[in-house]
Amino acid sequence: MQAPAAAERNKGPILAVLREYVGPGAHAGPGVLRVLEVGAGAGLHAAHFAQALPQTLWQPSDIDPRALRSIAAYVEAMQVPNVLPPILLDVSQGWETWGGTQPATLDLLVSINMMHIAELRCTEGLFKGAGVLLKPGGVLFTYG
Questions:
Q1: Which of 44, 115, 123 is nearest to 86 (CA)?
Q2: What pTM value is reported for the model?
Q3: Is 113:41 a contact under the CB 8 Å cutoff?
Q4: How confident is the chain (144 residues) per 10-residue block, as mean pLDDT?
Q5: DSSP code at position 91
Q6: How many CB atoms are closer than 10 A to CB 2?
């Protein structure tokens, strides 16, 4: 289980902003909010955010198989029931390859600390995927 210091430092401030989009009264209608996190890295954010936002169903993903193992370890250690098993996802590839996510089914697409370090084609893929996969009124949430 990886423990990035930056993720530990910024999890609180990021969660405060996420609550504006998924907290009580922030969305229309009852039910679970579907979240896809692209580039979830070690999994600290996925586990922390899902634990704090039980009304979400959190799907973490990453391109690195080592990250997938770390995500699974965080979820198990923190006993977070609303996190799905992590999926291998290359955001530079078409949305059709994103683990079976169907068009207009996501409430929130999250990308933290990816765009500033990834190739431009990854950012382009993120925005293209968001345009297809987010529900009307859904949010693409980026940080870093």
A1: 44
A2: 0.93
A3: yes
A4: 81 95 66 93 94 96 95 93 96 95 97 91 96 96 92
A5: T
A6: 15
Q: How far apart are CA 114 and CA 118, in angstroms?
A: 6
Report the b/e string of 118-127 with b at 16+ CB within 10 A.
beeebbebbe
Report d(CA 28, CA 50) in Å as an integer: 19
Q: What distance in Å separates the CA atoms of residue 137 and residue 123, rounded to the nearest whole number?
A: 21
Q: Are 57 and 32 in contact (CB under 8 A)?
A: yes
Instruction: State how beta strands 87-88 and 134-143 pair.
Output: unpaired
For 84-114, write each residue's pLDDT tens digit: 999 999 999 999 999 999 999 999 999 999 9
11: tokens are 């999890």
| Beta-sheet pairing, 106-112 with 87-88 | unpaired
